Amino acid sequence: MTDVHSPPLIVVGVDGSPAAQTALEFAIEEASIHKASLHVTYAYPVQASVLTGSTGNEYYEQVESEAKEFLQGVIAKAPSSKGLDVEWLAVPGNPSEVLIEASREATMLVVGSRGGGGFKGLLMGSVSTQCVHYSHCPVLVVREEH
């Protein structure tokens, strides 16, 4: 968790799911209310080679380009964040690990209750569950509006 004298920082995870969209809307509102900086974070998977542990440059460049393009789509659909200090981040890695690491500097982590994964019957998705258990700051799990 951040130092009490640091300006507030809200981190929100996005993945294109309806719950993540609602989490983003909530995070923007909270950042505005608390005059906090906002980090909108999209964690994208990169597949390392099982044999060498490395990723091919061409593959990585394509995945990174696609992640940035995806994030541009999220930005286009996002509610206005005018007047806020917002960073839009596309970060390679496992979503749970990326968000938990980002929570080290945050005053709040906001995630959707269920992301793009396939187990819609779950009350909470695996990323939100991991964040609740391992984050370094308070976590708000937001359900999508019905």
Q: How would you characterize this protein structure?
A:
The structure is a single chain. The protein has 146 residues and is of the alpha/beta class. The protein has one domain: HUPs (Rossmann fold, 3-Layer(aba) Sandwich), CATH 3.40.50.620. The chain is built from four helices and five strands. It is globular and about 45 Å long. The termini are far apart. The relative contact order is 0.24.
Structure keywords:
38% helix; alpha/beta; 146 residues; Rossmann fold; 5 strands; globular
Secondary-structure arrangement, i.e. CATH architecture: 3-Layer(aba) Sandwich
Radius of gyration over all CA atoms, rounded: 15 Å
Give me the strand/helix succession: EHEHEHEHE
Across the major sheet, the strand order is 3-2-1-4-5
Strand content: 15-25%
Number of domains: 1
How many beta-strand segments? Answer: 5
What's the story with the biggest beta sheet?
A: 5 strands, parallel
Helix-and-strand structural type: alpha/beta
- The CATH H-level superfamily is HUPs
Helix content: 25-40%
Number of helices: 4
Mean pLDDT score: 85
